[in-house]
Specification:
five-stranded mixed β-sheet, rod-shaped, mainly beta
Amino acid sequence: MEAATALEGAAGPTLKVKEVSLADAEEPQTSPRQGAGSPIPQLLSPIEEHPKICLPRALRQTYIRKVGDTVNLLIPFQGKPKPQATWTHNGCALDASRVSVRNGERDSILFIREAQRADSGHYQLSVQLGGLEATATIDIMVIERPGPPQSIKLVDVWGSNATLEWTPPRDTGNAALLGYMLQKADTKSGLWFTVLDRYHRTSCIVSDLIVGNSYAFRVFAENQCGLSETAPVTADLAHIQRAATVYKTKGFAQRDFSEAPKFTQPLADCTTVTGYDTRLVCSVRAFPKPKIIWLKNKVAIQGNPKYRAFTCLGICSLQIRKPGPFDGGIYTCKAVNTLGEASVDCRVDVRAPE
């Protein structure tokens, strides 16, 4: 029969075998320093592969999840024989009611069914094999929508501009704010329109508001999850008043249009046939409006039914109804006003029909 003892060599654990007799095999062998009741030492399995954690590249930076999402992390590791894998959260043991762990031969799985903000923190995986240990830390951040800004105030209104101020939200949703979204709505339509998006300051000036309208404003906070569910609205409306317009008339010299009569188109000599109506036409310019007098051979013919006189916009005409041989002669048109008078003449001949 053979007995084995372990010796530690430079190249690792080795085994040395010596021959024994059958009689020696029937009785247990003890070392001189070992009593009869001492336990028999056992041999440890040799370490064939040192422990090592293969952390995925995506987990080497902060792992971000939204509230309610599932967290399922598979972390491969190496080591032979099978190492012992343990997890801690912020240096403490995991809460078994929320986090479950499954360790396999070559990997360890961390599973959270519905993540909450309390699950954020540093998760450390430790792989131990004998006196050797490998560790890896994973930062998990569980975020949600931010709360609304605490208040918004209308500071001033001038012209078509309004100044606003607001206070940041108490809860940022466990994530840095990306900015604020400011919206406006006029009381006529009631529709909200975005004025500023991802604005980082807590005060602003809104310009180009329409004169005569009244506006309300509201502001949302925004992070990686999106906008806050609600938004505070200004208690006061911004009334954009119409500026009072004063019209000043410029003084100018009144033009004097007064003018003595002046004929711009004279009468023309004509020859007519007995029994056919004839019309004499001329034009005159004058202000005030002149009085028109028609004469035949220097005798006024006003009121004579044989003649019809018309005056319209300075155009003067005389109609001779069915002239006879005695209607020929010199016809005169005279224009008279307060500034003077003027006249034009023409000769009318009446011949018998052929």
